Amino acid sequence: MQDEAATIAFARLAEISQQKRQFTQRDKFLLLTGISACRSGWIEIAARCRELVLAHNPAHLIRRFDSLPDALRSEDFEAFRRQLDRFCTFEKAEHLLSEMGSTVISEHDIETAGETLKQLFESTDWETS
Predict the structure, then answer these.
(1) Are 93 and 6 in contact (CB under 8 A)?
(2) What are the tens digits of pLDDT across the range 35-71?
(3) Fewer CB under 10 Å: which end of the chain, C or N?
(4) What is the DSSP letter of 60?
(5) pTM, to two decimals
(6) Which CB contacts under 8 angstroms, 24+ apart, belong to 111-118?
(7) 78 Cβ contact list (under 8 Å, min separation 6)
(8) Tally of domains within the chain
(9) Domain for residue 128, yes or no?
């Protein structure tokens, strides 16, 4: 259940970064969302996160892999994944959201997260410049 909650938290932070036009930070949160989504079994969400990162940065390291699950299986990606973990842990994400006045992630959020995240990431509002 922690991976599902992490997916939601990182997705919220990605959306906030998008609204603030902080695209580099947004991309990091998108990758953290995608990694957590993989662990939760939400492969479509992970694929969309990868797609959004590559739309903004076509030369990103993630391009070398056909999918986020493939990247996670690769030793070549491991150092970058650890760097992302240092950038923002799930606990830090919860703290950041709390400081911004965002509600705590509930069991209901987790139960409906797959569909909610799918709708969020299918949106065309993700500006990539």
Answers:
(1) yes
(2) 999 999 989 889 999 999 999 899 999 999 999 999 9
(3) C
(4) -
(5) 0.84
(6) 113/4, 113/7, 113/8, 113/42, 114/40, 114/42, 114/45, 116/8, 117/7, 117/8, 117/11, 117/33, 117/37, 117/42, 117/45, 118/44, 118/45, 118/48
(7) none
(8) 1
(9) no
Q: What is the mean pLDDT of the chain?
A: 85
For residue 17, the tally of other CB atoms under 10 A from its CB is: 18
Whether 129 maps to a domain, the answer reads no
Is 41 inside a domain boundary? yes
* Tokens found for residue 75: 């030793």
For 81, the enclosing helix (H) or strand (E) is: helix 75-87
- Residues 28, 13: contact at Cβ < 8 Å? no
Measure the CA–CA gap between 95 and 15, rounded to whole angstroms. Answer: 16
Range of the domain at 17: 2-122
The answer to whether residue 94 sits within a structural domain is: yes
Q: Which amino acid is at 32?
A: L
